[in-house]
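Query structure, 140 tokens:
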């Protein structure tokens, strides 16, 4: 027989009648007593309140899952790994694609353009991308 209230000497020592614990709100495997005094074994696998989470599916890697605002989210962010790119023109730019990058990618000047940076072709006193000019200034 379950007991939900214990009174001794006119004084209430334990009173479970106002308790609200239910198996769906008690963590899985934990035990407590319900308002009727019966043992309640938890069945809830909820381990965090994610209502204040700010992650969006575009910020989670594609195929990975996470929980936010009480919902299971499946990521859509592409994994771009090691991105490589080259620049061949002074007016070129490299657009970094949206998504995850593993940090080992590089963007560099193309080999063809690097070969054109010859110190004897650059006027003395001028430095272009780390190459010091050695071509003397001709005075007329």
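Result returned for the query:
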């Amino acid at each position: 027989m379950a007991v939900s209230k214990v009174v001794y000497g006119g004084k209430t020592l334990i009173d479970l009648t106002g308790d609200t614990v239910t198996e769906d709100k008690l963590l899985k495997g934990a035990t407590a007593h319900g308002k009727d005094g019966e043992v309640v074994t938890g069945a809830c696998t909820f381990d965090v309140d994610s209502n204040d989470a700010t992650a969006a599916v575009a910020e989670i890697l594609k195929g990975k899952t996470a929980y936010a605002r009480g919902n299971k989210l499946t990521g859509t962010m592409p994994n771009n790994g090691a991105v490589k790119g080259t620049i061949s023109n002074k007016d070129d730019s490299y657009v970094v694609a949206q998504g995850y990058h593993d940090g080992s990618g590089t963007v560099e000047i193309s080999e063809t353009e690097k070969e054109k940076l010859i110190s004897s072709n650059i006027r003395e006193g001028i430095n272009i991308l780390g190459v010091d000019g050695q071509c003397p200034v001709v005075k007329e």
